[in-house]
Amino acid sequence: METFGFWDWAVLAAYFAVLLGVAWWVILKGKETADDYFLAGRNLGWFIVGASIFSSNIGSEHLVGLAGSGCTDGVAMAHYELHAWCLLVLAWVMIPFYTRSMVYTMPEFLEKRFTATARWVLSVISLVAYVLTKIAVGIFAGGVVFSTLLPEVSVDLGVVQLDSFWIGSVLVILLTGLYTVLGGLRAVAYTEALQTLVLIFGSVLVTIYGLIAVGGWGEFRNILSGEMFNLWKPLVPPGMEGTWAPVKEPDRIAWYFNSNYPWLGMLFCAPIIGLWYWCTDQYIVQRALGAPNEKEARRGSIFAAYLKLLPVFIFIIPGMICFALAVSGKVPELAHLVDENGRAIPDRCQAAFPLMIKHVLPIGLRGVVVAGLLSALMSSLAGVFNASSTLFTMDLYQKLRPQVTQQQLVWIGRVATSVMVLIGLAWIPVIQNARGLYDYLQTVQAYLAPPIFVVFFFGVFMKRLNGSGCLAALLVGFALGVFRLIVDTPVSLKLPGFENGYTPGSFLWIVNNIYFQYYSLLVFVVSVIVMIAVSYATTPPPLSRIQGLTFSTITEAQRRASRESWNWVDVVASAVVLLVILAAYLYFTG
Q1: What are the backbone angles phi and psi of residue 434, rounded to the nearest 5°?
Q2: What are the phi and psi torsion angles at 225 (to 5°)?
Q3: Helix H or strand E segment including 79
């Protein structure tokens, strides 16, 4: 079967020409200053802010992992995507503090609220998290896409032969790095706005042609069981009733039960991860920091919330359609995705989205969708490259070299980007052996997010908390997360002696088998207790230091300025987002 035709290649060529043209135009407008390179001169409008946030978020874990999750588990993972409300928390709760403080990075905000040491610790934690998740996963997804669409491509280097997986990974890095390293956030944000339009249009085409191939929405629902359309039923392990009672499994103690997405974890853990990611992660918030004022930053975040509602319909649904086509035999080429009992094979379903492009779309439109797919991969990587270089340069290097020039800061940022890419490549084998791309990402984030969420949100709501409590919570929470990763990694890699995991019933076996969301809740509770206990056992922070950085220390002038930055349009727009989320939950309840 011919994968690509002339017009597909022509569309791809045109896409890259326009993309690089926009990037070059933006680069020519830029200046060699830290403010321009890392925050686009704080001149991004609300549309660019919102589109850039969405484009950065919609990357490899969605195109490969989320569609694959839809193929295997139905709408279960829509819980994470319906967390668009977290962007409203960013817009209305956190942005006023960020814009008033005029910071470059999230760790810098912690320094203003707590101590310089807290800034250092969070910078290191964030950089480690980016290596473990965003960079490596993005590179891996690029390889999956290329190996699915162009499996016959290979290059023989004599010592080693590179297949399409590795060729795709390297190409995605080079093309993304070309404009990211040169243009900084300004180039990233403007190209991401373009990529958002291409991504949405291409993904909608996949959904439409997929529904046509399966016979329409009614036939689609008839083929699949009701459980795949139920946000709650798939969260309960096989053999258990779909109730709201705490999930238990007869063979294991309930608190270390290891099953797929129990409701208790989704209800309490998922919001913690969501609020950390959307409201405190440099990778996302940096776009809002690039807005000229609170009004543009808030409206950009609200716009991003609307865009964030789309993945349920343009990624999860196509993944489910892919499974329906495979199990019904309507597209014989997809039969390898299911076993003899008609159950999805998770590892093979990771390629659900590119397989839909290959076997459902007609030649001529595949180029459009692949352009959108590459847009998501590249924009996600570009965002994390820029965020990583900003963290390293502004929070670490500038602290060590306070007299450094603006030009030197920009140069160091470019070097830092290159180093992060090389480190990320080394982690690809770990991800290849993980249970699933989206699961891997959610697992690692669940271990590292809770202490960061605690210090930011408790920090702005409780003025009594101090730098000692913040530092203690970060260190203890991070140590617990790293410990779990150390325990899990040998099993994930199936290293000699760990092919079957740890000895059942041993301490390390229990740690390895605690469901990741439950472990995340444990880290959260410990972090809260540590932060409050240490803060109240030590000296309160001076009022002059935290003025305007907590709700109870905001001045009347600051309150007035923030109130003048929004009107009824912003309120109604936010309310509509909440209504759409509610409607989605009501529909997907089986």
Answers
A1: -75, 165
A2: -70, 155
A3: helix 78-81
